[in-house]
Each structure stands twice: as structure tokens, then as C-alpha cells.
């Protein structure tokens, strides 16, 4: 059973090894659990993935799932927040709690629209006021939202 007081970062079908490696390092730094949802766009043994995570892999709890539906089934009472550029609600308006699952889609397509429309209250976005880009880098986004969750729950002040 996964610890209920740690945050869970979920990457749905990640495609770019350095992004996943950077997020693994973020999880090591924060004590968060990293969930990878297949299919992955790389091998877990990928050299770029290992390099981006540096020597922190032994400090990260990594779970690999055959589908997002398996995580939902394993954690029926879990609170899931879905990051997307297609939501109107800011991540700053979310009320995070320890044990929450923060879910990110693949780099090229994001999360499927059916997940976003099925979860309007927990679909959140990172506002980009300049409107100069369509999205932020996956590992940057994970860091922004996870550190806000940690701030809200008093883990960091």
C-alpha cells in the first residue's frame, strides 16, 4: 500500500526520457511517489532517463501501471487532479491534501479530453498570462504544481 501522506505524481504515457528523469529527481527531493502509466515512449533502462534522474533513482518509489484505469481501481477513494491547458481553473485554486494524485498527460497531446470533461472540478491549469506558448515543459509543470501542493499542506513554508 502506498503512503497516504505523500503526494503522487502520475505521468500518463510519457514520451521524453529526460522529462521523466527530471520528475523522478523532483519526487526524490520531495518524497513523492512517481507513477508511470504505459505505454511509455522509452525503456525504463533508457540512458537519458537514468542520466536526468542522476543518482537519485534509489530514492524514488516508482510504480508502473498498464493503464490509468488500474490506478483508479487501486485507489477508489483517491483524489485526482488533472493538469491540462484546456481547463479554466488555476492550480492555485485547488485545495491539495497529502496523498493526492497529480496527473499529467503525454508531452505531445496532454491528457485525453474525455478525462478532462469527466472531471471538471479537478481539471486544473497553470495560467500563462503572456499567451506566448501553448504549454510549459512537463517537468517544469510538475515542479510548479507539486511545490504548491507542498506549500498548501505546510510541508514547505
Strand content: 15-25%
Query: Average pLDDT, to the nearest integer?
Result: 91
Task: Give the uncertain stretches in residue-range form.
Answer: none
- Rg is 15 Å
In whole angstroms, the N-to-C terminal distance is 28 Å
Write the CATH architecture name: 3-Layer(aba) Sandwich
CATH uppermost class = Alpha Beta
Give a quick summary of the entry.
The chain is an alpha/beta fold and about 160 residues long. The chain has one domain: SPOUT methyltransferase, trefoil knot domain (Alpha/beta knot, 3-Layer(aba) Sandwich), CATH 3.40.1280. The chain has helices at about 15-30, 45-50, 70-75, 115-120, 140-150, and strands spanning about 10, 35, 60-65, 80-85, 100-105, 125.
What is the fold's blueprint, element by element?
Blueprint: E1 8-12, H1 17-30, E2 33-37, H2 47-52, E3 61-65, H3 68-74, E4 80-83, E5 101-104, H4 113-118, E6 123-124, H5 138-152
Parallel strand pairs: 1-2, 1-5, 2-3, 4-5, 4-6
Summary tags:
31% helix, six-stranded parallel beta sheet, 6 strands, single chain, alpha/beta, 157 residues, Alpha/beta knot, globular
Amino acid at each position: 500500500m502506498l503512503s497516504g501522506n505523500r503526494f503522487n505524481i502520475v505521468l500518463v504515457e510519457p514520451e521524453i526520457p529526460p522529462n521523466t528523469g527530471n520528475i523522478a529527481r523532483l519526487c526524490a527531493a520531495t518524497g513523492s511517489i512517481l507513477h508511470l502509466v504505459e505505454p511509455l515512449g522509452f525503456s525504463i533502462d533508457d540512458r537519458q532517463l537514468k542520466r536526468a534522474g542522476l543518482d537519485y533513482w534509489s530514492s524514488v518509489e516508482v510504480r508502473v501501471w498498464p493503464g490509468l484505469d488500474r490506478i483508479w481501481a487501486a485507489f477508489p477513494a483517491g483524489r485526482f487532479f488533472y493538469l491540462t491547458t484546456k481547463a479554466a481553473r488555476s492550480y492555485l485554486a485547488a485545495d491539495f491534501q497529502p496523498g493526492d494524485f497529480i496527473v499529467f498527460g503525454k508531452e505531445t497531446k496532454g491528457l485525453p479530453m474525455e478525462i478532462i470533461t469527466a472531471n471538471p472540478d479537478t481539471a486544473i491549469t497553470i495560467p500563462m498570462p503572456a499567451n506566448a506558448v501553448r504549454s510549459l515543459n512537463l517537468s517544469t509543470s510538475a515542479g510548479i504544481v507539486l511545490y504548491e501542493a507542498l506549500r498548501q499542506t505546510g510541508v514547505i513554508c
